[in-house]
Amino acid sequence: MRPRHAPERGSTDLVLVLPLAMTMVMVLVQLAMWAHAQHRAQAMAEQVLAATRAADASTATGEARASEVTEDLGGRLLRGTDVSVTRTTATATVQVRAFIRGPVPGWEPPVHAELSAPVERAGVRESP
Hints:
TadE-like protein; about 130 residues; transmembrane; rod-shaped; Pantoate--beta-alanine Ligase, Chain: A,domain 2; alpha+beta
């Protein structure tokens, strides 16, 4: 004879595992978004550096390009984007700092990219 109400096996496991699995999925999505945002910050820095280090450019040229790429590449993913442009007679440096928005409330990890390169001189072409 079988008892009328046999205990359900595995229901307790599901109650414990499901929240853990959902948390892991949310963290993985947040990490993927962070990696994507880091690539965007790097691309922003590369474009601003290229504009800043040109032979006829200035810090103002780099800052103007920074405004453009912040709108184009920052989009709704990056929040609080700050692009710092420095140019001396020999070197151009760009720093991009921002925070990302993601599915985990209250967790907005920072992204950072910094690039530096020699300033191009008029009539002088550097080898790759």
